[in-house]
Description:
The protein is α+β, with helices and mostly antiparallel strands. It is 31% helix and 27% strand. The protein is built from 13 helices and 22 strands. Strands 9-2-1-13-22-21 form a six-stranded mixed beta sheet, covered by helices on one side. The two termini are 23 Å apart. The model is unreliable at 1-15 and 17-22 (pLDDT under 50).
Amino acid sequence: MVVQQLLCKCGGDTGLVNAGRRAMSRILIVGAGLTGSLCAYLLRKELANRLQLVVWDKARGAGGRMSTSRSPSDPNCTVDLGAQYITVTPDYAEKHKTFHDELVANGICKPLRAAVEGMVMSEGSYNLVTPQGVSSIVKHYLSQSGADVFYERHVTHINLLEGRWEVCRKSGSPENFDIVVLTMPVPQILQLQGDISKLIKESQRQQLETVSFSSRYALGLFYETGTQIDVPWAAKYINDNPCIRFISIDNKKRNVESLEFGPSIVVHTSVPFGKEHLEQDKEAVQPLILKHLESILPNLPKPKDIKCQKWRYSQVTKAFPDCPGQITLHSKPFLLCGGDGFTHSNFDGCTESALRIVETLVSQSKH
């Protein structure tokens, strides 16, 4: 419905389809996180089979910073290493109601009922959790989009070639697209080589360079079936530790306790700790986090598996000026970039960016 209104406002959906006057426009979305997956979902929802959607991500799976990791020993035991839940504020409860309602109706999200110590909530806000892990949101949108999704495709160069974009990756042959949408973190956009580096206007580059992110580590601990984690909360914010900021008993947070698989814990470090140890190897940082965790939870059982994740680009600390949701680097053919760097780091920020990307593609391609 949201995109239908955009299409009506723009006088129809012919602009996208007419890109390059080909029978079907081939669109590449770089990044299989929330913004990229929602972009694909919205475009497919309104333009049906009139364009070919392709999604590339350099990781081995979907989610981006909405990452759910599986235990190497038991794929049913999972932990959310990135985003933990969706906070719905009064403003966005109305503005993005259709998105929140759809996720709840499909069983992908449900209200957070578990106890979270130290959580600060604004009046009228509430939280949604994901029974199957936070990456299930991204997987839902990708599935509904019908896009061709490819992983381990790390984009390195983007060149303008005969009115189309030639996109090169670390391994494999270059491919051509009519439209390219970049949704990875802004610093990674600035690292791209080829014609894109010359097409970015100096004023845009200066603004892009002002976007900044915090960094942190996340530790996932996976336990044997039947293990008991004896704490009175499902998650807790830590204010008096130099390393650890947040701990979640993940299955308890999701209210999914099962006799078929063991519990899992996620630990997020503080931003200062993440910054201090950012350039170190994960293998060197993991024991430091575990030592601090032991001081907080001295009776914690020994995990069967551990995964350490370095989030170099964790959350936006300074967004693109005026938070436009997206910017156009080139219009004929389209080369856009969006993501939370152009809004703010949460579900509604990414949703806002995806809507602005779709609006731009539909409205400007008409002319």
